[in-house]
Design goal:
Elements (H helix, E strand, L loop, with lengths): L1 H31 L5 E7 L6 H16 L4 E6 L10 H6 L5 E5 L22 H15 L7 E8 L3 E5 L13 E3 L3 H9 L2 E3 L3 H10 L4 E5 L2 H4 L8 E4 L8 E7 H6 L2 H35 L3 E4 L2 H10 L1 H13 L4 H17 L1
Parallel strand pairs: 1-2, 1-3, 6-7, 6-8, 9-11
Antiparallel strand pairs: 3-10, 4-10, 5-8, 5-9
Length: 348
């Protein structure tokens, strides 16, 4: 009788242990299903107060929202993680997972896409942004193969703001114009003298007469207060150039993302292309309003005069085609596609 009781107690003990282990196992399995948060870093060259930095940060917050917190993005504005010229390589080398900066800051690195910045007469930032993204995707040049390109955005047409009125191409002769990179070549072709300097230096340079004018998108006249130290604006949008800006992700980091998160980020990037373009357009509108408030003269070039300016910058376009074709790149076709898209946008 005693043995039988002991046997029954033993059976109950082992059954209880098995049940406890089963429950414990279920608990561990449930915990194992919890996914770790994917943390990403985003280097942005714009300062925190700039509308394009705010637009980029809105994108990052929306990624977090639509992934239900599975992705967390820490933004580093103002070049605090990688400076503007080093931003792209920083993404390639994993210093940041994401990056936004200008293609033009590393001239020669993107020989085909540099064509996006040419003075082809962009009418506004929305058009420039849409065309830049479309052509980058259409051509998918090898020069950006070392990252995953999310999208491109670009500012509205560069115009001429000067201390003395510039009404004709002849008035440009000898004018000292703040310009860098591609815009310096534009100034030279127009007969002016380019003077390289950063935007923060330009206000004082105009004020003290170090330069007579600046070539810039009109939003700069308010954003950097340069409208206060010029007297007139020449609407040279017939040769409107832009500066295209990339938004890219480290390739290995992108490929390691779950497929559904890739889809969310890709969809959001599509939605943010027009948002960046609209932000550029709004900034330009504010720049125009600022100039108007200051009673600065705005000069519209007559059609025949505008044609002279277009002809004057043609050597820049020719040089781009020659140099890109010499590298085995389809520069001629790329430029033709670009000009056709701009023509379609301006004729509608």
């Amino acid at each position: 009788m005693m043995k039988r009781s002991m046997h029954m107690l033993g059976g109950l003990f082992f059954s209880g242990m098995a049940g406890a282990l089963l429950l414990t196992g279920c608990g561990q399995s449930g915990e194992a299903k919890e996914e770790p948060v994917i943390e990403l870093s985003y280097s942005i060259f714009f300062p925190p107060s700039h509308v394009q930095c705010k637009t980029a940060e809105d994108w990052a917050r929306e990624v977090e929202k639509r992934t239900d917190g599975r992705v967390k993005i820490t933004t580093y504005p103002g070049g605090s993680l990688t400076k503007a010229p080093q931003c792209y390589d920083g993404v390639v080398n994993g210093i940041s997972d994401l990056g936004m900066s200008c293609l033009a800051y590393t001239r020669g690195r993107f020989p085909l896409l540099e064509g996006l910045d040419l003075p082809v007469g962009y009418p506004d930032g929305s058009v420039a942004t849409r065309i830049a993204t479309d052509l980058a995707r259409q051509y998918a040049p090898k020069e950006m193969d070392d990252t995953h390109v999310l999208y491109i955005h670009a500012h509205g047409p560069g115009i001429l703001a000067s201390k003395k009125p510039v009404r004709t191409l002849d008035d440009m002769k000898g004018v000292k114009v703040r310009a860098t990179g591609l815009s310096a070549k534009i100034v030279e072709c127009l007969g002016g003298t380019p003077v390289a300097m950063s935007q923060p230096e330009t206000y004082e340079a105009l004020q003290k007469g170090v330069v007579d004018a600046t070539l810039c998108p009109i939003e700069t006249l308010k954003g950097w207060k340069q409208g206060e130290v010029i007297d007139s604006v020449t609407d040279s949008s017939a040769i409107g150039y832009t500066t295209s800006m990339f938004v890219v992700m480290n390739k290995k980091k992108w490929e390691a993302l779950p497929e559904d998160i890739q889809e969310i980020i890709s969809q959001l990037s599509e939605e943010w292309v027009p948002r960046h373009g609209a932000a550029w357009d709004q900034a330009d509108e504010e720049g125009r309003a600022f100039v108007k408030e200051l009673n600065r003269e705005v000069i519209d070039l007559p059609e025949a005069e505008a044609a002279r300016w277009v002809e004057a910058v043609q050597p820049i376009l020719n040089e781009y085609v020659t140099q890109s074709e010499a590298q085995g790149l389809p520069g001629k076709k790329f430029l033709a596609d670009l000009q056709e898209r701009v023509k379609e946008a301006t004729s509608n």
